[in-house]
């Protein structure tokens, strides 16, 4: 039997909005692109050969979540809770596969390259790969399920409703006005949290990352309404902050993966028995990375703080 070939992944495409578009039309364009990206990467994700398949499905899913969140604020998502529940369900299944992809590629494989004769790492690698195979099997089962098919249909139906919305209110705010209001809101929340709370604890790091992520996705959504030169620098600064905070988050994900693999009963508990050596090596790896990340957070935040707002 021949080896399965990796399927080509579909990368995110820039959403182009026009100032004269209605809010429903803009949201429909974004949601439709997100759904297309989700569906187009199913074949690659099923095979599990190229980790980008799952990653790009998650990118499409995030676009759908952003569109749904914005639609909810504009009262354009009557089934918001039901649709969000389906997106969260799909996201959880994709997330389990993605976490193991990242843990194996970014932690275990570099560690094994440095400690080629360490038996406990070899064992952990085998267990992690088996867990990854199980996660991808669960993903394939999800993609083949009637619930997933129904979720796709419901998302398509919601997008069709957005496309046909006429906006019966006497005067709806323009797309530019909506963009400015939402960007102001996201920006204020990020600034307020960074200046008042900071990033001294795990909870604060996580919350700051979420604020940066929301601002980045909102800015990217509305970017085509503004001059590209002015949006590019701001989005790059926010993206760098989000990426740096994401590296800090990776160490927490690694601890949760280790807990799921059975090296410890809980993320903050000590490792058990024969796993102790491999667990300590993983922990040390992330402590070194965390020290580097800690030095990068403040410069990344200052770059966002001082970046010129484009709206």
Describe the overall structure.
With 311 residues, this protein is mainly α. The protein folds into two domains: 22-168, Alpha solenoid (CHAD domain); 173-311, CHAD domain, CATH 1.40.20.10. Helices cover 75% and strands 0% of the residues. It contains ten helices and no strands. The protein has helices at residues 23-40, 42-47, 52-73, 80-114, 119-143, 146-164, 175-196, 202-222, 228-261, 276-306. Helix 7 (175-196) runs antiparallel to helix 8 and helix 8 (202-222) packs antiparallel against helix 9 (228-261). The protein is globular, with a radius of gyration of 21 Å.
SS-based structural class?
mainly alpha
Task: Name the CATH class of the largest domain.
Answer: Mainly Alpha
Total domain count: 2
CATH fold descriptor of the largest domain: CHAD domain
Spatial shape: globular
Number of strands: 0
**How do the helices and strands follow one another from N- to C-terminus?**
HHHHHHHHHH
- Catalogue the unreliable spans: none
- Tally of individual helices: 10
Keyphrases for this structure?
mainly alpha; 311 residues; CHAD domain; globular; single chain; 10 helices
Give me the secondary-structure topology.
Blueprint: H1 23-40, H2 42-47, H3 52-73, H4 80-114, H5 119-143, H6 146-164, H7 175-196, H8 202-222, H9 228-261, H10 276-306
Structure summarized in a few sentences:
This protein has helices spanning 23-40, 42-47, 52-73, 80-114, 119-143, 146-164, 175-196, 202-222, 228-261, 276-306. By secondary structure, it is mainly alpha-helical.
